[in-house]
């Protein structure tokens, strides 16, 4: 099992998911209730009533103004988590309050801080393409019945595209091309790059860009442990000029693939995925194609990772893995996650907000 990393920001939802309906999510084993106040502010608090632990996201619990009323016995809470009403008595127990969570809305995501102290000046990593007018985005979320570390491994070794995602994004060159890996241990960032100079154009890109020839295909991964994965993908016809000295790259198509990797429980993970493109902006047919195709790819990963988790659960203690060059990014991520988990566990606990 990959240990949880506390004292970090995690994606709990897309901004579009959070509204005046009560939404429940479980992050690092903590049940969290999300909703918006009447003036649009996002609130995150414990999703368990202090009375009998009824889930506040479960009907008939509901909002009355900005207050949350438990649908079981009517305990009612303000946006600060403090209970403002209990049935049958005037005195409200001092301990009748829910834990609340710091929230940041950034790049179309709702981030919550899971930790034993306040985040201070620590902010989530950026994915600015998610709400940039220069990009069109398709996105979704799929739950995985597996350890979040399995998804990290999956995304840092894209050679699996050749075998698992053939007919969508996989071609022989992905597995055949060596990678380079750079690790910034202090920042907790892993970079993995694979540049293919002459590759088959997979349907995912051929049908969305209109390229009918072979391509140069760059895959530059940037993993910000523990929670955010970025894949900078560059596609251009073979022979097209490369990026200019100033960074401009008008002869290529660019896709930014974003994953919010959120551990839910020890054996379940939220897989928030998005594909942002700088071409065919606003073209609904292209958007529909990319959404359908990427959802298929994500579901292929979900099926594989669910099966892998079941397999690992039956392994005897002490089983040995075999790792090769393609695993250098994933192994680096494991080391960083283990260090961050230990650092989070060593933090002194403080009183919950």
Automatic annotation (TrEMBL):
InterPro entries: Cholesterol_7-desaturase, Rieske_2Fe-2S, Rieske_2Fe-2S_sf, VanA_C_cat
Domain Rieske residues, every copy: 9-112
Gene Ontology MF terms: 2 iron, 2 sulfur cluster binding; dioxygenase activity; metal ion binding; monooxygenase activity; oxidoreductase activity, acting on paired donors, with incorporation or reduction of molecular oxygen
Keywords from the UniProt entry: 2Fe-2S, Dioxygenase, Iron, Iron-sulfur, Metal-binding, Oxidoreductase
Protein name per Swiss-Prot or TrEMBL: Aromatic ring-hydroxylating dioxygenase subunit alpha
Organism: Streptomyces xinghaiensis
